[in-house]
Amino acid sequence: MELNQLKPVKGSRHHQRRLGRGQGSGYGGTATRGHKGAKSRSGYSRKFGFEGGQMPIQRRLPKFGFTNLNRKSYKPINLETLQALADKNGWDVITPERLKDAGFISKNDLVKILGKGEVKSKLEVKAHAFSDTAKAAIEAAQGVVVKL
Questions:
Q1: String of b and e for 36-73 (b: at least 16 CB within 10 Å)?
Q2: Cβ-based neighbour number of residue 107 at 10 Å
Q3: CB 69 within 8 A of CB 42
Q4: So what's the pLDDT on residue 1?
Q5: d(CA 106, CA 97)
Q6: What is the pTM assigned to this prediction?
Q7: Mean model confidence pLDDT for the chain
Q8: Number of neighbouring beta carbons within 10 Å of residue 99
Q9: Confidence of residue 71 (pLDDT cuts 50, 70, 90)
């Protein structure tokens, strides 16, 4: 067998219908689109959420709630996580850059340290916010809290 003898498997290739090319083609006239109406016109595309003229769900349901444009959302990190990182990597200073490198936060995340767990070693922790219990626990272990 040679390359010029290769053919696709029978039934794997379909003949493309040439629509709207005159009556002799068998697909002229309405070009298989039926008679009249929006769907038969060129350039028709159904709007997103269109439900056939019925009032769409996004208009049936009421608006509610409020979005505060000035809201700051913090990525929570617990003391037990900080202690595990310090033990594993031998860190005595923990910063958002180090947390990013360790894969705990993303590039522009704000960090809040929460008080779950305990701190055994003396750590200098730099973050954007601290809970009262976390701050007290870090300072009780002779650590330093630096708010960014």
A1: eeeeeeeeeeeeeeeeeeeeeeeeeeeeeeeeeeeeee
A2: 6
A3: no
A4: 85
A5: 9
A6: 0.57
A7: 92
A8: 21
A9: very high
State how far the alpha carbon of 90 is from the alpha carbons of 9, 26, 36, 81, 96, in Å: 64, 79, 75, 13, 16
Token readout for 119 is 């701190």
Q: Is the pLDDT of residue 75 over 90?
A: yes
Q: Which SS3 state, helix, strand or coil, does residue 139 take?
A: helix
Sign of CA dihedral 28, 30, 34, 39: positive
The two structure tokens encoding residue 51: 């439900």
In this model, does residue 91 exceed pLDDT 90?
A: no
> Quick check: 136 pLDDT over 90?
yes
Interacting residues of 115 by C-beta distance below 8 A, sequence separation 6+: 78, 79, 131, 132, 133, 134, 136, 137
